[in-house]
């Protein structure tokens, strides 16, 4: 059962082609890691799946639960259950964490969650993330440390309960304890219906999340696929040997 199928996608940003015929399949319930050199197009891929209008798909299809979503807007994709945790979460002065999450949740579900239920659910998730309740009334990400921003992203994910979670370098800038808390929380929140696409340069988070599949993205394409041992191999050899193999 495929949740997401990306078929021969080409995508531009500012008139420059970044994705050059990318193919990728993510099964329902799968944890799929994407690794690859800096600037290879990993964040671009996430933005293209989410529908960020800054990125233009010029060819190919993105099938989500069998439906081509290429022409859908970000909010329409969010309603379908797609969630992206940004590599560099934005600071939003004037909007509290509470307000932001409540608004997103109500928009995605088309319902108003009663205040008490919302507060209870927030507390439960914030406790898992070891986040104090006072963050609820802080402006979103304003003055948050790198680690606190990543936790606030996971809190949003926890509340929205999407079908496809994309975590773009969620482990960058986290200390060892925060990394463990974030990774363990993601693992606890993951249901059988939820797929995770995780982008990382490091093995540590993969030791917690145990990906089913690891794909290597380079030069705008998926150039290799393997199981979790591929990450260990890459740590030893780097990307060059793979690229030599693929490009020769
Ligand atoms: P990765 O996440 O693998 O490091 P990115 O997807 O961020 O790579 O970037 C791939 C390429 O696309 C880079 O050359 C980058 O400079 C370019 N790029 C990505 N986003 C933008 C943007 N918003 N505007 C201009 N160039 C961009
Ligand atoms: Mg990068
Ligand atoms: Mg990136």
UniProtKB/TrEMBL annotation:
InterPro entries associated with the record: AAA+_ATPase (IPR003593), ABC_transporter-like_ATP-bd (IPR003439), FeS-cluster_ATPase_SufC (IPR010230), P-loop_NTPase (IPR027417)
PROSITE patterns for the chain: ABC_TRANSPORTER_2
One GO MF term attached to the UniProt entry: ATP binding
Gene3D superfamilies assigned to the protein according to its UniProt record, in alphabetical order: P-loop containing nucleotide triphosphate hydrolases
Key words, A-Z: ATP-binding, Nucleotide-binding
ABC transporter domain sequence ranges: 4-244
Protein name: FeS assembly ATPase SufC
Assigned protein family: Belongs to the ABC transporter superfamily. Ycf16 family.
